[in-house]
Amino acid sequence: MxxxxxxGTGNFGRAAIRAVDAHPGLELAAVLVHDPxxxxxxxxxxGGLGRALGVVASGDAAAVLAAGPRAVVYxxxxxxxxxxxxxxxxxxxxxxxxxxxxxxxxLYDHRDDRQDLREEIRAALADGNGSxxxxxxxPDWTDEMMPLLLSGLGAGVDRIHxxxxxxxxxxxxxxxxxxxxxxxxxxxxxxxxxxxxxPTTVWGGQVRLMARALGVELDEIRESLERRPLExxxxxxxxxxxxxxxxxxxxxxxxxIVGGEPRIVIEHVNRIDxxxxxxxxxxxxxxSCAQRVLVEGGPRIAMIVVGxxxxxxxxxxxxxxxxxxxDWLAGQAPGFYDALDVPLRPTRAPELADASV
Length: 357
Description:
globular; 6-stranded parallel β-sheet
């Protein structure tokens, strides 16, 4: 069993606790929290399992790392505390751990020579002989791996378009939805996540990874952004009131340009009110989130994925990819890994072993 800790218990961390508990090759050894109010709570409670796991949350990262965990699922947000995130992850790497995380956007493509951040991480890797696998905050099977797998079903690829469509109205993340994304804020407020070059920082790595896998050279990466105001004020159950005139929807694209044309595109269509921007793509009726992948070529292949995750947990579907990589990484040499290095693997399902066929 691989001794594993989960660091952070937000949306992603709660899903990570459940995924580690369900994995037959992993043992949940500790949970680290930043909120003093969570210290001492059982991991099963924090993970929403409905049962105790006998693992009590700690706020003492140094003590937990000193115990020598083999792996760390780093689930704390890097949106507004990037310096702290790098320090935390470096501490885990120096302790010799395998670290899997979505929290360092610039390292989705760690081969990008423009990222000075790599050297700090590489020093920590060398000090502790740990491993690091960073992959997308969005499910990488829709922003990276699934488009590439679908492309292998055809004779050629002309264009790849990945699209995430999200209704935020059921979320309980006011800081992220209002401050980072700008929902409900005046249209002259430029939210951090949509400021110029930030979308490329967050999603450009996936565009570069797909280009590398397809063997094409990018001319450049471009961004496009559209925003729509709320026509009427709305009231949400979890985040309160959003006033008319404030941002109600945004549509952004990160475009990999090949031969002067956008050939690899990652697009996000986000709303705080499902009725805002009705002419833009929407999730299927009854759904709050949808992932779409379109591969243009020979033949044209389209895929749509909808999930039944609780509101706000849609991004956490990528946790299974990260947690599921830990035992594979344990058998590899220490070092830096990305989504093209780590193979897609079936979920282990021992509960099916005795099932009749």
